[in-house]
Design goal:
Largest sheet: none
Helix content: over 70%
Radius of gyration: 22 Å
Strand content: under 5%
Distance between the termini: 13 Å
Number of helices: 20
Shape: globular
Number of strands: 0
Length: 482
C-alpha cells in the first residue's frame, strides 16, 4: 500500500512521473467524463433534439467570444515553470494579471454583443450563465497549467471528478424540475465555478508571496511565445463554428443531432488528450535534444495510433446502433454523422500530439499556415455542404479539415526533427482490419452492441499480443517497472 501511495503522490523520475500523471489523468478524465456522459444522455432524452440543440448552439456561440481568452498564456506558464528558471514567479504573476484582465473584457463583450447577433435568440439569462461558465473554465485552466508544470495531475483529476459530479447531480435535479436548456446551463456553471475554487486552493502556495505587477520583460517573452498560438487556437474554432453555422443555415434540431455525435467523439478524445498532457512537461524539458524528442515522439505517436485506428474503424461500423442505444431512437438519424466523425479520429488523435510537440519546441509560428488554411477550408465546406446535408455535411467538413491540418503539420514537423512513425503501424493496421472483420461478422449474427464491442476489443488486444506489437509492450514494461 505504501509503495502504491508513493507512486501515485510523488515524482521520483521522468518515467515514473509520466506514468503517475497518466494514471491520474486516466482516472480523472474517465470518471469525470462518465459523470458528464450521464448528464448528456439524460439531458438529450429529457430536452429532446431541439432543446439539446439549443443548449449546444449556446455553448458554441458563447465560446466564440472566449476564443482569444487563453492567448497562449496557459501553455506559456506550463512551459516556463516546468523549466524551473529564475524568472518563473515573475512570469506567473504577469500571466495571471493579463489573463484575468483579458477574460473580464471578453465577459463584458459577450453580454453586450451576444443578444444582438445570431439566428437563434439565446436570451440574456442563457447568455449570462454561459458566460460565467466559460469565464470560470478559462480561469481554472490557468490554475491547472501551474499544477501540470509541477507534475501534480492528481489535483486535476479530483477537480474534474468534482466538477462533473456536481454538474451531473445538479443537472438532473434542475432538469427534472424545469426541463429547459437553462437548467442544464446553470448546472454547468455551478460545477465549473466550484472546481475552479478548489484548484486555486491547491496552488495557493505558488501564488503566495508573488509580486503582483506586470513585468515588461515577461510580457515581451510571452508575446514572442504566444502570438502564434492565437492563430493556432483557431483550430478549436473549427469545432465550434460547425455548430454555429448549423444553427444559422439549418435549425436547432440539426445542431442537436450533430452535437450528440460530437459528444461521443469528444469523450473518446480524452485518450490522446491525457497522453498529451502527461507528456508535455517532459517534451518541454528535452526541447533542445532533437534525438531524444524524436524517439519519444515516435513511441507516443505509435501508441496513439494503436488506440485511434481501431476506435475509428469500430465506431464507423457501429455508429447508428450506438446513437440509438445511448441517446434514444430519435437520435438514430445522427448515425451517419457519427460514422464520419469517428473517421476524423484518424486525424484528430495525431493532431493533438503534433500540437504538443510544436508548442514544446516553441515553433508555433512555423505552423500558423496549417491552421489558417484549415479554418478557411472548413468555413467554405460548411457553406457548401450544410444547407443541403445538414449535420452530415458539417461532419464531412470538419473531418476533411482535420485531415488537411494533420498532413501539413506532419510534413512541417519532419523538417524540424527526424522521425519515422509509419513503419511502426504495420501490426496495428493488420490487427485493426481483423477487428473490423470480426465486428462485421458479429453484426450479421445479430449480437447486442455491448457484447460486440467487448468481443472486438478483446480480439484486438489478443492480436496485438500475439503479433508482439512494440507499442503495447512498451506500455506493459513501463507498468511492470513501477
Amino acid at each position: 500500500m505504501e509503495k502504491i501511495k508513493h507512486f501515485l503522490l510523488k515524482n521520483t523520475s521522468d518515467r515514473q512521473t509520466v506514468a503517475k500523471n497518466t494514471v491520474w489523468l486516466v482516472f480523472g478524465e474517465l470518471f469525470g467524463r462518465l459523470f458528464k456522459l450521464a448528464i448528456v444522455v439524460f439531458a438529450t432524452r429529457k430536452l429532446g433534439i431541439e432543446g439539446w440543440g439549443f443548449f449546444s448552439y449556446g455553448l458554441a456561440f458563447v465560446s466564440f467570444f472566449y476564443l482569444l481568452g487563453d492567448f497562449g498564456i496557459n501553455i506559456f506558464v506550463t512551459r516556463e515553470i516546468a523549466k524551473n528558471g529564475p524568472d518563473k514567479h515573475r512570469h506567473l504573476a504577469t500571466s495571471f494579471m493579463i489573463k484575468i484582465s483579458l477574460l473580464l473584457v471578453l465577459f463584458v463583450l459577450s453580454l453586450l454583443i451576444g443578444p444582438h447577433v445570431g439566428k437563434i435568440a439565446l436570451g440574456m439569462n442563457m447568455l449570462a450563465v454561459l458566460s460565467v461558465l466559460f469565464f470560470s473554465d478559462a480561469v481554472r485552466e490557468f490554475a491547472l497549467s501551474v499544477n501540470r508544470s509541477l507534475g501534480r495531475m492528481e489535483q486535476e483529476a479530483f477537480a474534474k471528478i468534482l466538477m462533473n459530479g456536481i454538474i451531473t447531480i445538479l443537472g438532473i435535479v434542475l432538469i427534472i424540475r424545469h426541463p429547459i436548456p437553462l437548467s442544464l446551463a446553470i448546472a454547468y456553471a455551478v460545477g465549473s465555478s466550484i472546481a475552479t475554487l478548489y484548484i486555486f486552493w491547491t496552488i495557493r502556495h505558488e501564488l503566495r508571496g508573488l509580486e503582483w505587477r506586470v513585468s515588461k520583460e515577461s510580457v515581451a517573452l510571452m508575446y514572442q511565445f504566444s502570438w502564434p498560438i492565437i492563430i493556432m487556437s483557431l483550430f478549436s474554432f473549427v469545432f465550434n463554428i460547425d455548430s454555429i453555422m448549423l444553427g444559422q443555415l439549418r435549425s436547432a434540431a440539426d445542431v442537436g443531432l450533430y452535437a450528440a455525435a460530437q459528444r461521443v467523439v469528444q469523450f473518446i478524445a480524452i485518450i490522446p488528450g491525457f497522453i498529451a498532457m502527461a507528456t508535455f512537461p517532459l517534451l518541454s524539458k528535452y526541447e533542445s535534444d532533437n534525438a531524444k524528442m524524436s524517439g519519444m515522439f515516435e513511441k507516443i505517436m505509435a501508441t496513439v495510433f494503436a488506440l485511434g485506428i481501431p476506435l475509428a474503424l469500430g465506431g464507423f461500423l457501429l455508429s447508428t446502433s450506438f446513437m440509438s442505444l445511448v441517446f434514444g431512437s430519435d437520435y438514430a438519424a445522427g448515425g451517419t454523422t457519427l460514422s464520419i466523425l469517428m473517421l476524423s479520429l484518424l486525424a484528430s488523435f495525431p493532431n493533438i500530439i503534433l500540437s504538443n510537440v510544436i508548442m514544446s519546441k516553441n515553433l508555433q509560428r512555423t505552423f500558423i499556415a496549417a491552421t489558417s488554411i484549415g479554418v478557411a477550408v472548413n468555413i467554405i465546406l460548411n457553406i457548401l455542404l450544410i444547407p443541403r446535408y445538414g449535420a452530415v455535411g458539417a461532419a464531412v467538413s470538419v473531418t476533411i479539415t482535420q485531415l488537411l491540418i494533420m498532413i501539413i503539420n506532419w510534413q512541417k514537423l519532419k523538417r524540424v526533427i527526424a522521425f519515422s512513425v509509419v513503419p511502426r503501424l504495420g501490426i496495428i493496421l493488420a490487427a485493426s482490419v481483423l477487428m473490423a472483420l470480426i465486428i462485421a461478422v458479429l453484426r450479421v449474427a445479430g449480437l447486442h452492441l455491448i457484447i460486440t464491442v467487448a468481443i472486438a476489443a478483446l480480439a484486438y488486444l489478443a492480436i496485438l499480443l500475439a503479433l508482439k506489437e512494440p507499442s503495447l509492450y512498451e506500455i506493459l514494461s513501463l507498468v511492470r517497472q513501477q
